[in-house]
Design brief:
The chain has a domain at 20-234 and 334-403: Glycosidases (TIM Barrel, Alpha-Beta Barrel), CATH 3.20.20.80. With 414 residues, the protein is of the alpha/beta class. It is 40% helix and 15% strand. Helix 8 runs antiparallel to helix 10 (206-226), helix 13 packs parallel to helix 14 and helix 14 (335-354) packs parallel to helix 15. The radius of gyration is 20 Å and the shape is globular. The strands form four sheets. It has an eight-stranded parallel β-barrel, surrounded by six helices.
């Protein structure tokens, strides 16, 4: 590594309440390029949106025009006194055709990094957040023989603008990317396709998963050699819990959905924990969320305790890799409910930290109401956006989270 990382100061665990956190603790919010920038025309997701698949009923279009309005977004986060912002660089913009690297796009994302700092925000940059260039998808995507090499070439191209970025997430939710790979193969099967359109998703494809792990490790080696960044990736955690007597089924579900990706992070500088809800594993496997008035706009159960479950599981499986909560939030149009959910989630996070788990930050999903992979209805944002005028309106939850950041404390054990 090129320097000693002060971002790796360990939290001070107190027996009293509230728990005082180190000054390096990250308090912030997160977005992804495709969901916010707009007109990502060279990506595989743009092509999927144009294909009229039933599971993608709405298109991203202009999204919320953060490609042009990123300074306004970051200014609002900084004015709320948050100190971190996780955003992505878009591979399809940087390499729209194989081997064609756009210096203009590299310059654009470097300006975003500099703007974040000007707004008082520590940048965390994600290199792959679900979307790939269409040429990569047409060549076979993550199961192509040269997929790791192609991703590594992209990382080498981006590394110069990341030289002083303190945190880099190589791949967002690789287990979800592996699910997408499995789903795309099933589209031609009528029975499986019907199940997907009704909400059931396949298990992560293990072959894609292995390639994604290799790609992550290749990217990690490049970034450690060429930048000062703390390098990790983020894992979509289901916060599985066992129905009575179903501990073996729970272990099997974790082995398929999460554990290979967490094990792959054992030598990382951090692992990103991403959790929204909890799911029960019964005798016949994962039990889908039943209908309930408290379910969120995505249909997920209201489970703020999921964050504590996920953090504890990640800590155990990685063997103690430092954790950053890179996504946690709720899809709701009731901002009072968003604050209540987040407050309880942070209480569970504080309890986990009081038990000795090393957590370096909390990044809320999401900074903005944005395009949620085929739908606009689920609103996760701390900031509302008028999609016609692109006017940004901070919600009370943004000010509330800013107050938490200013106090820099978390609830301890209850």
């Amino acid at each position: 590594m090129l320097r000693e990382r002060s971002v790796f100061e360990s939290p001070t665990i107190r027996s009293d309440r509230p728990m005082k956190l180190p000054n390096t603790f990250l308090w912030g919010a997160a977005t992804s390029p495709h969901q916010t920038e707009g007109n990502n025309v060279n990506s595989d997701w743009w092509a999927l949106e144009s294909s009229a698949l039933p599971m993608i009923p709405e298109r991203s279009g202009d999204a919320v025009d953060s490609y042009h309005r990123y300074r306004e977004d970051m200014t609002l986060l900084g004015q709320a006194r948050l100190n971190a912002y996780r955003f992505g660089v878009e591979w399809a913009r940087i390499e729209p055709e194989r081997g064609q690297i756009s210096q203009a796009m590299l310059d654009h994302y470097r300006r975003m990094i500099d703007t974040a700092r000007e707004c008082g925000l520590t940048p965390m940059v994600t290199l792959h957040h679900f979307t790939s260039p269409q040429w990569f998808a047409e060549a076979g995507g993550w199961v192509a023989p040269d997929a790791v090499e192609r991703f590594a070439d992209y990382v080498r191209a981006v590394a110069p603008i990341l030289v002083d970025v303190p945190w880099v997430c190589t791949i967002n939710e690789p287990n979800m990317v592996a699910i997408f790979a499995a789903a795309q193969r099933l589209v031609s099967d009528p029975e499986s396709f019907s199940a997907m359109t009704s909400g059931a998703m396949p298990d992560p494809d293990p072959d894609s998963g292995k390639i994604l792990i290799d790609a992550h490790h290749a990217a990690r080696a490049i970034l450690r050699a060429e930048t000062d960044a703390a390098v990790g990736w983020s894992v979509a955690q289901q916060a599985f819990v066992a129905a009575p007597g179903c501990e073996e089924q729970l272990a099997a579900a974790n082995h398929i959905w999460e554990d290979p990706y967490l094990i792959a992070a054992r030598d990382d500088d951090f692992v990103g924990v991403q959790a929204y809800t909890s799911r029960t594993v019964g005798p016949d496997g994962i039990i889908e969320h039943p209908e309930h008035p408290d379910n969120t706009l995505t249909g997920w159960a209201y489970r703020p305790d999921a964050l504590g479950i996920a953090v504890r599981h990640a800590w155990e499986v990685t063997g103690g890799t430092p954790i950053v909560v890179t996504e946690n939030g709720i899809a709701t149009d009731d901002d009072t409910k968003r604050i209540a959910y987040t407050a309880e989630a942070l209480a569970h996070l504080g309890q986990a930290m009081a038990d000795g788990i090393d957590v370096r930050g909390y990044l809320h999903w999401s900074a903005l109401d944005n395009y949620e992979w085929g739908r606009w209805r689920p609103t996760f944002g701390l900031i509302a956006v008028d999609r016609r005028t692109f006017t940004r309106t901070p919600k009370p939850s943004l000010a509330w989270l800013g107050e938490m950041a200013r106090g820099n404390t978390l609830p301890g054990p209850r």
